[in-house]
Amino acid sequence: MNLVDGIRNPRRRNTGRQTAALRIEIDGFRDVLCDRRDQTIGPLQVMILPISDKYSEYAHQVAAQLKAADIRAELDERSEKIGRKIRDTELMKTPYMLIVGEKEAADGTVSVRKHGEGDKGSLPVAAFCEEIRNIVNEQIKGKRKG
């Protein structure tokens, strides 16, 4: 369908089908540029989510342990409900979330959630650090081969 804009220049209007096809092509190109498979090599690997302000001291200890292990982590200290923090972190596409509360602080563990997969259970912080290091090393080896 040919249209005329305000200055009387003929132009063609995109149909819904053309617009959808263009969006799919752009999304695919963005996936190639971002290489979404390598999520743990990205700028932020872990977000630490304390259930409430009472557990922020333990969350800071966890953050220090992760940074000592060269894992890029941030702490979400907003006074929001935990569901809101999880949803926001999922939207940010952060690969891992560590939820800390009373049980985790008492046991010295963290509750692990993976982006797109959900709850992975509780782990000691050292075991989680080792798991992330192994994943990153495997991804780096795969990059070198390819």
Can you walk through the features of this model?
- With 146 residues, this protein is of the alpha/beta class.
- It has 2 domains: 2-34, no CATH class; 39-145, Anticodon-binding domain (Rossmann fold, 3-Layer(aba) Sandwich).
- It has 5 helices and 7 strands; from the N terminus they run ββαβαβαβαββα.
- It has a 5-stranded mixed beta sheet with strand order 4-3-5-6-7, sandwiched between helices.
- The protein is extended and about 70 Å long.
Task: Describe this structure in a few short sentences.
The chain folds into two domains: 2-34, no CATH class; 39-145, Rossmann fold (3-Layer(aba) Sandwich). 47% of the residues lie in helices and 22% in strands.
